[in-house]
Protein backbone atom coordinates (compact mmCIF):
# COMPACT_ATOMS: atom_id res chain seq x y z
CA UNK A 1 0.00 0.00 0.00
CA UNK A 2 1.05 3.55 -0.61
CA UNK A 3 1.95 5.31 2.63
CA UNK A 4 3.44 8.46 1.12
CA UNK A 5 2.00 10.32 -1.87
CA UNK A 6 5.52 11.42 -2.91
CA UNK A 7 6.15 7.88 -4.15
CA UNK A 8 3.25 7.94 -6.65
CA UNK A 9 4.25 8.40 -10.27
CA UNK A 10 0.79 8.06 -11.88
CA UNK A 11 -2.70 6.95 -10.94
CA UNK A 12 -5.46 5.82 -13.31
CA UNK A 13 -8.92 4.27 -13.10
CA UNK A 14 -9.45 1.25 -15.31
CA UNK A 15 -12.40 -1.01 -16.07
CA UNK A 16 -11.13 -4.52 -16.69
CA UNK A 17 -13.37 -6.98 -18.57
CA UNK A 18 -13.36 -10.48 -17.08
CA UNK A 19 -15.56 -12.17 -19.69
CA UNK A 20 -12.69 -14.40 -20.81
CA UNK A 21 -12.76 -16.07 -17.40
CA UNK A 22 -16.11 -17.58 -18.39
CA UNK A 23 -14.40 -19.57 -21.17
CA UNK A 24 -12.37 -21.76 -18.79
CA UNK A 25 -13.55 -24.61 -16.56
CA UNK A 26 -15.96 -23.55 -13.83
CA UNK A 27 -13.62 -24.53 -11.01
CA UNK A 28 -10.79 -22.33 -12.42
CA UNK A 29 -12.69 -19.09 -13.12
CA UNK A 30 -11.60 -17.05 -10.09
CA UNK A 31 -7.96 -18.04 -10.56
CA UNK A 32 -8.14 -17.09 -14.23
CA UNK A 33 -9.77 -13.74 -13.39
CA UNK A 34 -6.77 -12.77 -11.24
CA UNK A 35 -4.41 -13.69 -14.08
CA UNK A 36 -6.50 -11.64 -16.54
CA UNK A 37 -6.25 -8.61 -14.23
CA UNK A 38 -2.47 -8.96 -13.95
CA UNK A 39 -2.02 -9.34 -17.72
CA UNK A 40 -4.31 -6.37 -18.47
CA UNK A 41 -2.50 -4.09 -16.01
CA UNK A 42 0.93 -5.22 -17.26
CA UNK A 43 -0.05 -4.38 -20.84
CA UNK A 44 -1.54 -0.95 -20.15
CA UNK A 45 0.85 0.17 -17.41
CA UNK A 46 3.86 -1.03 -19.45
CA UNK A 47 5.38 -3.04 -16.63
CA UNK A 48 6.30 -6.65 -15.98
CA UNK A 49 3.99 -9.14 -14.28
CA UNK A 50 6.44 -9.57 -11.39
CA UNK A 51 6.16 -5.89 -10.40
CA UNK A 52 2.36 -5.91 -10.06
CA UNK A 53 0.85 -6.09 -6.57
CA UNK A 54 -2.87 -6.94 -6.30
CA UNK A 55 -4.62 -5.77 -3.14
CA UNK A 56 -6.32 -8.40 -1.00
CA UNK A 57 -9.68 -6.58 -1.29
CA UNK A 58 -9.60 -7.08 -5.08
CA UNK A 59 -9.08 -10.78 -4.51
CA UNK A 60 -11.95 -10.90 -2.01
CA UNK A 61 -14.21 -9.08 -4.49
CA UNK A 62 -13.55 -11.70 -7.17
CA UNK A 63 -14.07 -14.59 -4.75
CA UNK A 64 -17.13 -12.99 -3.05
CA UNK A 65 -19.65 -15.09 -5.02
CA UNK A 66 -17.47 -18.17 -5.07
CA UNK A 67 -14.99 -19.68 -7.45
CA UNK A 68 -17.49 -20.31 -10.26
CA UNK A 69 -19.35 -16.98 -10.47
CA UNK A 70 -16.82 -14.24 -11.12
CA UNK A 71 -17.98 -10.70 -12.00
CA UNK A 72 -18.05 -9.81 -15.69
CA UNK A 73 -15.94 -6.68 -15.14
CA UNK A 74 -14.26 -4.72 -12.35
CA UNK A 75 -13.39 -1.05 -12.01
CA UNK A 76 -9.98 -0.74 -10.38
CA UNK A 77 -7.51 1.99 -9.43
CA UNK A 78 -4.00 1.44 -10.80
CA UNK A 79 -1.18 3.25 -8.98
CA UNK A 80 2.25 3.22 -10.58
CA UNK A 81 5.02 3.99 -8.09
CA UNK A 82 8.34 5.65 -8.86
CA UNK A 83 10.41 2.55 -8.02
CA UNK A 84 8.55 0.60 -10.75
CA UNK A 85 5.99 -1.29 -8.69
CA UNK A 86 2.35 -1.13 -9.77
CA UNK A 87 -0.49 -1.52 -7.27
CA UNK A 88 -4.02 -2.66 -8.15
CA UNK A 89 -6.68 -1.41 -5.70
CA UNK A 90 -10.42 -0.99 -5.44
CA UNK A 91 -11.47 2.67 -5.85
Automatic annotation (TrEMBL):
Q: Which UniProt keywords apply?
A: Ribonucleoprotein, Ribosomal protein
One of the Pfam families matching this protein, by short name: Ribosomal_L31e
Gene Ontology terms: cellular component: ribonucleoprotein complex; ribosome
Q: Which BP terms in the Gene Ontology apply to this protein?
A: translation
The record, for InterPro entries, names:
Ribosomal_eL31 (IPR000054), Ribosomal_eL31_dom_sf (IPR023621)
Q: Name one GO molecular function term.
A: structural constituent of ribosome
Family listed: Belongs to the eukaryotic ribosomal protein eL31 family.
Q: What is this protein called?
A: Large ribosomal subunit protein eL31
Source organism (scientific name) = Oxyplasma meridianum
Amino acid sequence: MVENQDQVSSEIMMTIPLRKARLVRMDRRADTAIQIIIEHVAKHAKTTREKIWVDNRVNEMIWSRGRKKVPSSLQLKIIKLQEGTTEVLLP
